[in-house]
Write a structure and sequence with these properties.
With 514 residues, chain A is α/β, with parallel strands linked by helices. In chain B, helix 2 packs across helix 14.
Chain lengths: 514, 355
């Protein structure tokens, strides 16, 4: 008998104390043995729905049926016992333990005297292994594994607990194209063994290539579902955003001024605990967008930190005519960065929660932080300024006094962009992961603003792990792998942007570095 | 306003626990409460003493709260207060003949500088050598006791006196008693240092809320990585913030040294630096909260003195127990809120099951 059918009936989830309906009367049916894509913008309720399935969150109304009977899970432990498992976006692995120890953790089989019976755990796991691609060196430390391999450990944990229904929350956000391929191959093997897989995602290409059915939530409500084979891409996009997405503004033809680069880097090398950079050389000119592609952790963070002078490095870096010293002295470094910001640098850092916002302060304070130099604060002006930013960048908040932690990711990111782009004339924009985890409408708005900055003659450096984004924006694309540039591609002339070749450069460089 | 609710609930819980304790010791909580109230606010003199006890706590509480805003934990207020008091006494003894309008402001300034130096060194060690400020400030407390002992018992010792104390400071350094000046505080030693404390509270509040400097301090404490990526120097801000925190603590000795004893006596800080931590935690976000908490603690200290006489089984140490219970209740208010939500959820789900 096939197990793994899931049905939601009239699920409503009301958040306290705001009375916000994260889910509002959602009903949907999922067959066993298929890969189901759960789609929706950020905050649409897809994660909440899956957490309800998994017993992490309880619905205020409605019931979940698994294999035809009502499932009432008091906790994830209950859900696991019934054959459900979830891989969260942020892995919960112990990096200092081996693969097999991580898999055993929580349901260890022991020999006498409390000694772990690893051999038995490995044997059981190998017998249950649904896909050869899941095979890892069981004795390696998890901390030594790549992100893709760590994700496999998470899936193995579910296999070892005999999960029939697997939920993966945004599983491809941190993977390279090749790792994504191999993940979906694993998921297809799981499907072939009769397991049901839910994938929460907002990347449509994966959905069309690999999934069997789709369901879209919008603002907590069920919008539609169906079989992938019988649906077009634009139907799903319309369901997700509630309207047709306007196409990006036309790319204006720009005369790039090669004489005065906004960024000029030569022979930049650095070594930090998180990674190293090897003799980088590149420049970015006014009127062009240079993209940097690469799997997360290929040296992008170290590169950005060097450009803004907050980490030590060797080599020559010149930004907006200022020489950036690769210094250890923190005070000197912050003076340098303050100088860069004053000369027209707009900086959007990778981690908006820690590096771009003060989460427990208001929208209006966050809109004004960083560039105001008045020693007595004119807070009235600040509110006016914030209002202007919010209008121009469509930042949706209940009020300007709202703490930014209560905004959605998209609105937080729009607020950062508004502050960086509108508070001063921008000569150079450095945007690191400009749209990570941001809803489609916000992505569209931010991309439009980046193109507008280019059209206004600013130099732009975009560092992203989303190839679609880089292809849409870049004039020139550099691929980073293992701390070095492993490829350069041009929008015009040459072969253009080729997904396979860029993907290869992302991986090949990595191999070259080890 | 809603921010204050957990604080009042915490105080209520502390009162409740104290009552149970009192009952267990065979005394009536009502009698104890009556003694405490009468002793702390019952007469002008009693209330004057309450404010006198509160004065150093306002300074040390503000010092700790200020550092907390910058994300730093200053538990060295005791040492900074000691250094500040010694400096005030030293100026008042060495330059005893300065005229009045310059004398006491100079002493106050010296107290601030000495405290700021003491705090600044801790911050410097943190920035340059990675010594955590908690460790640094504890150790600097001990060093300050040694220096105070040397100055009071040797360098500036009053050999005429039976007590371990310095020579008297010059007349022009004396801060006036409020009973002489405006006729309040009865015969208590309450003096103008109390107004100095209120002025500093006002200043702290304005600087933190309305100036770029204060904003940068709060920013560095609240979102350091964001501040750093906006060109704010974390180390420079840390140094300034901790030095000023030390400076504020350095003023705490003014009330006793300049306003009452007119000399520095061994142990004059009397734990005010440590109680200041509790005051800062209770007073929380704003400077006025710190002032209110300091007066509450001052009242407890004063009121509890009468417990020795007026009750059989309870001594003045009850004040310390109450203070500790308040701090514990405030510190665990997050857990209290969670407990409340859990109970509420349990109740609602049990109600739902019955339907």
């Amino acid at each position: 008998m096939q197990t793994g059918r899931v049905e939601f009936q009239n699920i409503t989830r009301i958040c306290e104390p705001s009375k916000y309906r994260a889910l509002d009367g959602v009903s949907a049916k999922f067959e066993a043995g298929q890969i189901h894509a759960v789609l929706g913008e950020n905050g649409a309720g897809k994660s909440t729905l899956m957490k309800i399935l998994f017993g992490l969150v309880r619905p205020n109304e409605g019931t979940v049926h698994v294999n035809g009977s009502v499932a009432k899970f008091a906790s994830p432990t209950d859900a696991i016992r019934t054959g459900l498992g979830m891989v969260q976006q942020h892995f919960s692995l112990v990096e200092t333990l081996s693969v097999i120890d991580n898999i055993m953790l929580g349901h260890e089989s022991t020999l006498g005297g409390g000694r772990l019976d690893r051999a038995r755990a490995i044997q059981e796991l190998e017998e249950a292994l649904p896909s050869e691609d899941l095979r890892l060196d069981w004795n390696r430390l998890v901390g030594e594994l790549s992100i893709g391999e760590q994700q496999r450990v998470e899936i193995l944990k579910l296999i070892a607990r005999k999960a029939q229904i697997l939920v993966l929350d945004e599983p491809t956000a941190v993977l390279s194209p090749r790792e994504i391929e191999s993940l979906f191959k694993i998921l297809k093997d799981l499907k072939a063994r009769g397991r049901t897989v839910f994938v929460i995602t907002h990347k449509l290409s994966e959905v069309f290539d690999h999934c069997d059915t789709w369901m879209v939530l919008r603002a907590g409500k069920f919008v539609g579902s169906g079989e992938i084979a019988k649906t077009t891409r634009s139907e799903i996009v319309r369901a997700m955003v509630g309207a047709d997405v306007p196409p990006l503004a036309d790319r204006v033809k720009m005369q790039v001024d090669l004489a005065k680069p906004a960024i000029r880097v030569s022979n930049l090398s650095a070594e930090t605990s998180s990674g190293r950079l090897g003799a980088l050389k590149f420049s970015v000119h006014p009127g062009e967008i240079v993209g940097i592609a690469g799997v997360d952790g290929s040296g992008q963070t170290e590169l950005v930190n060097s450009l803004i002078g907050i980490q030590s490095f060797s080599g020559e870096v010149e930004v907006l005519g200022n020489r950036v010293e690769g210094t250890f002295d923190e005070t000197q470094a912050s003076n340098c960065l303050a100088g860069l910001l004053a000369s027209g640098l707009a900086l959007v850092s990778e981690d908006r929660h820690h590096q771009g916002l003060w989460m427990d302060q208001s929208v209006w304070l966050n809109a004004n932080l960083g560039y105001k130099n008045e020693s007595w604060l004119h807070l009235g002006d600040w509110a006016t300024e914030a209002e202007r930013f919010a209008r121009e960048y469509d930042v949706r908040a209940p009020g300007l006094g709202t703490e930014v932690r209560n905004l959605s990711g998209g609105n937080q990111q729009k607020l950062i962009f508004a502050r960086e782009m509108m508070s001063r004339p921008v000569k150079l924009l450095i945007a690191h992961q400009p749209t990570r985890g941001v809803d489609l409408a916000a992505v569209q708005l931010i991309h439009g603003k980046i193109l507008a900055a280019r059209a206004a003659g600013a130099a732009v450096l975009v560092i992203s792990s989303e190839l679609d984004e880089l292809f849409a924006l870049s004039d020139r694309l550099l691929v980073m792998a293992g701390g070095v540039f492993s490829g350069e591609f041009f929008r015009e002339g040459g072969d253009g942007f080729d997904r396979d070749r860029v993907g290869d450069a992302m991986i090949l460089g990595k191999r070259g570095s080890t | 306003m809603t921010r204050l609710v957990p604080v009042f609930v915490s105080i209520l819980i502390a009162v409740l626990l104290t009552s149970i304790l009192t009952l267990a010791l065979g005394e009536s909580p009502l009698v104890v409460a009556e003694v405490l109230l009468r002793g702390s606010i019952g007469t002008p003199t009693a209330f004057g003493y309450t404010l006198y006890y509160a004065t150093p706590l306002i300074f040390t509480g503000l010092a700790v709260a200020w550092a907390l805003k910058a994300g730093l934990f200053n538990i060295g207020a005791e040492g900074q207060m000691t250094m500040g008091g010694i400096a005030m006494a030293a100026v008042g003894i060495v330059l005893a003949d300065l005229p009045g309008f310059i004398a006491w402001p100079l002493a106050v300034f010296a107290g601030f500088l000495a405290g700021a130096f003491w705090g600044g060194m801790v911050a410097w060690l943190k920035i340059r050598r990675g010594v955590h400020e908690v460790l640094g400030s504890i150790l600097f407390n001990f060093i300050s006791y040694g220096i105070a002992g040397f100055v009071i018992l040797d360098l500036l010792r009053n050999h005429e006196s039976q007590n371990p104390e310095t020579l008297p400071i010059g007349q022009s350094y004396h801060l006036q008693a409020l009973s002489d000046l405006v006729g309040i505080g009865g015969t208590s030693p309450l003096n103008t240092a109390f107004f100095l404390a209120l002025a500093v509270a006002l200043l702290v509040d304005v600087v933190l809320q309305r100036t770029l400097f204060g904003l940068r301090i709060r920013w560095t404490g609240g979102a350091p990585e964001f501040a750093r990526r906006s060109g704010v120097s974390i180390s420079a801000t840390t140094l300034k913030a901790f030095a000023i925190s030390g400076g504020i603590a350095g003023l705490a000795g003014a009330s006793a040294v300049l306003g009452y004893m007119h000399k520095a006596r061994e142990g004059f800080a009397a734990g005010a630096g440590f109680v200041g931590i509790a005051v800062a935690l209770l007073g929380g976000a704003r400077a006025w909260g710190v002032v209110a908490a300091a007066i509450l603690f001052g009242g407890l200290q004063k009121g509890s003195l009468d417990l020795d006489l007026d009750t059989e089984n309870i001594s003045r140490d009850l004040a310390i127990v109450v203070q500790a219970l308040i701090v514990l209740a405030v510190a665990s208010r997050g857990a209290l809120v969670e407990l409340w939500l859990l109970l509420k959820a349990k109740y609602e789900s049990s109600k739902a099951r019955q339907v």
